[in-house]
Amino acid sequence: MSFIGGLRRLYQIVVPPERRRRLRERRKRAVFGLHLARSRLIGSPSLPGSSSPRLIVSLTSFPARIDQAWIAIESIFAQTLLPDRIVLVLARSEFGEAPLPEKIDRYRQRGVEILWIDESLRSYNKLLPTREKYPDADIVTIDDDILYPRRMLAELVAGRDQHPETIIARRARVVRCSPDGSVMPFRSWPLAAKGAPTERLMPLGLGGVLYPAKVLDDALLLDSATARRLCPTGDDIWFWAVARKCGVRHVSLGRSFMVLQEFSDTPKLWSVNQLPDGNDMQIAKVIAALGIQPVCPKAAA
Q: Which CATH class name applies to 44-290?
C-alpha cells in the first residue's frame, strides 16, 4: 500500500463514518463557494462555436446526477485553455420528455452541445457518440461529478503536442506482469508516474484522457455491442484494449495525487468493478476476444 493509501486507510479507521460525511459536506460547500466566487469575478466565458471543432471535451450524465453536472462543465469553462466545444451526451431512454435542469439548459447559450442518443451506453456515452459525430476532432473525456484543475486541458494538449498519435492520460495505472507472462490482478497495478509512451499503461477516465483523432480503428472502437458484451462496466478497459489492438501507445502525465474533488454520492461503476474479479474478468475476456498481442512478455528462461 502506498503512503497516501495508508493515510486514507488510517483516516477511515480513526474518524467515524458520520464525522467523515459531515467533513465531506463542509468541503463540498467550501469548494462550491470558492468556485462560484471566482466565476462571478472573472465573468462567464463562452466557447467559439466552431462548425469544425478540433478540440472537444465530452462527458455524459444521467438523471440521478444531472443536477450536479454543471460543476464539471463550469470547471471546463474555467480552464486556462478552452476547448472548441463541450459535448454533453444524454440518453432519451433515461430522461424521457422531462426538461433538463435550468443550470444545464443555460449552458447551451455558452456553446455547450447537448447530444441526444436514443439508448444509453452507460459510461461509454462519454466517448462513442461524440467520436461518431466528430471523427476529425481530438476528444478529451471527463466525468460529470468532478471539479477539474484549471490546467487540465492545457497539460493534456501539451502532452499531445509532445507525443503525437498517442493517447494522453493525466492519471493511469501500470499493467503488472507475473514471470510466466500472465497479467496480474488489477488491484495490484500501481499508479503511473510521468514517463515516455508505453503499451503498459491503462488510462483512468476520471482524471481526463485525450483521444487524438484518427489514431484508433473507429469501426472497432464504436462497436458498442461488442464493447458492452466484453466490458459491460469497464469502458476504460475497452478503450485500452482497442488501443492495444491498434498498436497505439499511452502516456501518463503522472498526476497520481492531483486533487480531484468529487461531488456526487450516487453509485459509481468504479464500485462495481472493485468487486472480486470485476476488472480482471473483463480484462481477460477482451484480451482473448480481440486477439491482442501478449500484454506481458514471458521472462527469459
A: alpha beta
